[in-house]
Amino acid sequence: MSPRRIEDEIVRDFRAGPEGRVNLSYGAYLHLDELLSTQHPVSRPEHHDELLFVIQHQTSELWLKLMLHELRAVQAQLAGDDLRRALKGLARVKHIQRTLTDQWSVLATLTPSEYAEFRSFLGTSSGFQSDQYRAVEFVLGNKDANMLDLFGHDPRARAQLTDLLERPSVYDEFLRYLARHGHPVPDELLDRDVTKAHVFTPDLVPVFRGIYEDAAGNWEAYEACEELVDLEENFQLWRFRHLKTVERVIGTKRGTGGSSGVSFLRKALELTFFPELYAVRTEIGA
Q1: Residue 34 class from Cβ within 10 Å (0-12 exposed, 13-18 middle, 19+ buried)?
Q2: In terms of CB atoms within 10 Å, which end of the chain has fewer, N or C?
């Protein structure tokens, strides 16, 4: 097979010209020299499979950064009554979630004996300490001020979490949007202390029932409700895949950061961001 000819127009020269102007290369734009030099396995002698472990978690943090970026924008768009752009943002977040969930299948190729070769070198580091994961939970409404104590050593992380703790969550902003557009959202939810986690409010269920039972007349709000349900379901699938991967690799051992491991992750499956959007399903058509 003859090699494919490189087209003459393809840029090859990335040297500085007479005026100091340089063509921007792919590697320079993405800072690949810096990015690809940040994988530092700590096992000695270095274990082959630790690179997988490092890259799995680093790429997850990059996707979490993008998810947080999009969810912050959704907050602002809902506050500004720009529901269509908010829906576009939520659609992108759902694709990010699917990518994060699929990534667990790569880590699941790490066998218990392979992980045991370098697990002790991780010390007290743990995914439980991911401030970006906590930030995503905060922006979606699962807030807990006690979590700030985990990040006393990290001013950047603590500042970000404090900011999100004090801001209305995506769900808070959605309920405020509904109220501004004529839906009878209970005042207690519009004036609540946003530093606390949202708790199930029975009086909100009829509001969603009205939206679902007149979908044609409330189409954008109806679509937003379903997008939020998709987002929560994806989050639960990610949590479940996380649980099963951990169970597959370390069984019921305690986590490196001190958590109870699988039993702790199993409890997280009971958490919900938008409880009324699930409760309304029992009421529709009853």
Answers
A1: exposed
A2: N
